[in-house]
Write a structure and sequence with these properties.
Elements (H helix, E strand, L loop, with lengths): L3 H16 L8 H4 L4 H19 L12 H24 L12 H60 L9 H17 L4 E8 L2 H8 L1 H16 L7 E6 L2 E7 L3 H16 L3 E3 L2 E3 L3 E8 L9 H18 L5 E4 L10
Parallel strand pairs: 6-7
Antiparallel strand pairs: 1-3, 1-6, 2-3, 4-5
């Protein structure tokens, strides 16, 4: 190219293709120069390809030839392979290694190894947490079972403390506590109530004849069929031995006598069954009415039970298997 001005125009155009933000148009004058259109198109295509790489697009096919185009192809292939490996890392496959991009390979491999180490550490911690959680759950279950057993044991102890172990009736202390509450309620409502004491007739002879196991069976039998005759607000307890006590709520003396008579008749007509035998038993009763106005004056329950016991002795003396009643006499008030 002998024309210096033409040479300078070619150099300026190529410089713009290499350095300018926007590719210059090929002027008609430069288009007339030999090979200039091909050089221009080559550099424009190279700019376009590298521009796509700069934007992260490595999908465009490299159609150029030559050394520079070969370098671009190698760069594209490496980047595509690196993207593929990074996608595998993203999917949790951390065995990826890059050995074809110099310092970038070192950084990539170090990053993947750190990720692998971190995930391994997390997995180990997760396994440890799962183990600890399982142990804690087992401990909670054990403590829960122990607490449940303790509560059940407390309920059993409370039940045993309040009930007679042979008949499952209220014991003397629990009977008096509940009867006093019910009597106070009757007093508020201005209702009478009755106390009845029951004693199994000739029980010592029954034990001597049939044995103590049969005697225990008879007491359980009497307790069971007697309870079946009670209303929901009536109370029955065992005083001890063959002696039982009843509280009939909201009844006068005649109604109390009829309630005791009903229980007496049921016992007399339902022999206890022991080893295939039907053993007859009977019981005697003493009944006393406690008027509502008497509540709160001295020890009413003790006084009522004493008077009911006197009526019971009269029933025994009159031939047993019967109900006798007595008139209530309030105890003298306590003077402090």
């Amino acid at each position: 190219m002998e024309d210096p001005s033409a040479a300078q125009a070619v150099i300026a155009h190529i410089k713009k293709l290499l350095l300018s933000g926007k590719a210059p148009e090929l002027t008609p004058e430069l288009a007339e120069l030999p090979d200039m259109p091909e050089i221009h198109q080559y550099l424009v295509e190279l700019r376009r390809q590298l521009g796509g790489y700069a934007r992260g697009d490595f999908s465009a096919e490299v159609k150029l030839r030559g050394v520079m185009a070969g370098m671009v192809k190698v760069l594209q292939a490496n980047m595509r392979h690196l993207i593929w490996q990074m996608e595998r890392v993203e999917g949790g496959k951390l065995a990826q290694r890059v050995d074809f991009m110099g310092e970038f390979s070192v950084a990539f491999n170090s990053m993947v190894k750190q990720l692998d180490d971190a995930l391994t550490s997390l997995r180990l911690k997760e396994e440890e947490l799962l183990r600890i959680t399982h142990e804690l759950q087992q401990e909670v279950e054990k403590r829960g079972a122990a607490l449940s057993a303790l509560q059940k044991s407390e309920e059993n102890f409370k039940y045993l403390a309040e009930h007679d172990p042979l008949t499952n009736l209220l014991n003397r202390r629990s009977f008096f506590a509940q009867a006093e509450v019910e009597m106070a309620r009757n007093t508020i409502m201005d209702n009478p109530s009755c106390i009845a004491v029951m004693d199994v007739d000739s029980f010592k002879g029954f034990n001597d004849t049939h044995g103590h196991p049969s005697g225990d069976a008879a007491l359980r039998h009497i307790a069971s069929i007697s309870q079946q005759q009670l209303r929901s607000n009536d109370i029955m307890g065992r005083l001890g031995g063959e002696e039982f006590i009843f509280f009939f709520s909201n009844v006068d003396l005649e109604q109390g006598r009829l309630a005791a008579e009903r229980i007496r008749a049921v016992i007399a007509t339902n022999p206890v069954k022991v080893d295939g035998r039907r053993l007859p038993v009977t019981a005697s009763f003493g009944v006393v009415e406690v008027p509502p106005g008497c509540a709160g004056t001295g020890n009413i329950m003790d006084a009522a039970m004493r008077i009911a016991d006197e009526a019971l002795y009269e029933a025994k003396a009159a031939g047993r298997n019967r109900v006798m009643v007595a008139t209530f006499t309030p105890p003298e008030p306590t003077i402090l």
